[in-house]
Recover the amino acids of this structure.
């Protein structure tokens, strides 16, 4: 709040009276008109600077809150990237992606390992009936499969395939 003072002698001595440069705002060096004394020329700049600082502090606080909420990978302990976090939240996540508690590299490794285990189980299941019908042989030995039968190609032959040397 500005404090403005004057002297009665100054007001009566000035031809403009109270409208003249007879007012002194405390903290300023010269006598001014009342409007100049009450004006705050650097106030707008100061208020804009204070608003910008407050805006910056608010943005930093929000960023810190966001980082505190960012999930951590259950596999490696790294914080999720923004992309992975959005996928986990459901936006852009492919159907059936599962394993939402892992970062992209750990999720890929998890799915690759699960696929390898599934393929190994599938191979073991295929080998189990063939091993049951064998006579003799060592326990746990791999079954011998006959070579595949070459079936004729169902496509009609073209003139390029019937040419000699082709």
């Amino acid at each position: 709040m500005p404090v403005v003072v004057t002297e009665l002698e100054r007001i009566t001595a000035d031809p403009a009276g109270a409208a003249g440069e007879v007012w002194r705002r405390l903290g300023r060096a010269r006598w001014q008109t009342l409007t100049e004394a009450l004006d705050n020329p650097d106030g707008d700049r100061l208020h804009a600077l204070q608003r910008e600082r407050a805006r910056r502090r608010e943005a930093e606080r929000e960023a810190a809150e966001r980082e505190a909420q960012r999930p951590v990978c259950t596999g490696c302990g790294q914080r999720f990237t923004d992309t992975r976090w959005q996928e986990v939240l459901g936006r852009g996540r492919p159907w059936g992606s599962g394993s939402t508690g892992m970062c992209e590299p750990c999720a890929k490794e998890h799915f690759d390992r699960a696929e390898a285990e599934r393929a190994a189980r599938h191979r073991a299941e295929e080998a189990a009936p063939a091993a049951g019908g064998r006579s003799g042989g060592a326990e746990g030995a791999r079954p011998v499969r006959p070579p595949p039968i070459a079936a004729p190609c169902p496509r009609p032959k073209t003139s390029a395939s019937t040419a000699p040397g082709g």
